[in-house]
Amino acid sequence: MEDKETLLELFAKKLELRDLQKDEYLRLDWHEPDESGIDAMVKGNHLDNAFGEDKNSSELVVILTKDGEEYYRINLATLLAVACV
């Protein structure tokens, strides 16, 4: 059985990403976000989400930038989990 608290946390992350998509007028499928100045990079060296988005962790994180500045950060394992809810 799924942990209700975990599901709620993941759903909240999903809503954050949905809000970002709407705020930046990105297509629902996120096609061509670069046309809105959004870019991405992945940093870290192992797939885990024990530390979330902690900047001092070596876990893999996806960092979205807008016009060269960090805009949104999400742990890659968490992003994969979000895709499952």
Question: What distance separates the N and C termini?
Answer: 14 Å
Quaternary form: single chain
Task: Flag low-confidence runs.
Answer: none
- What is the domain total for the residues? 1
Rg measurement, Å = 13 Å
Strand content: 15-25%
| Sequence of strands across the biggest β-sheet | 1-2-3
- Counting helices, strands and paired strands, the structural category is alpha+beta
- The number of helical runs is 2
Question: Mean of residue pLDDT?
Answer: 93
| Total beta strands | 3
Helix content: 25-40%
Give the biggest beta sheet: 3 strands, antiparallel
Order of helices and strands: HEEEH
General shape: globular
Describe this structure in words.
- The chain has one domain (4-82).
- It is α+β, with helices and mostly antiparallel strands.
- The chain contains 2 helices and 3 strands.
- Helix 1 crosses helix 2 (76-82).
- A 3-stranded antiparallel beta sheet has the order 1-2-3.
- The protein has helices spanning 4-23, 76-82, and strands at residues 38-43, 61-66, 69-75.
- A hairpin with a 2-residue loop joins strand 2 and strand 3 (69-75).
- The longest helix is centred in the N-terminal third of the chain and has 20 residues, at 4-23.
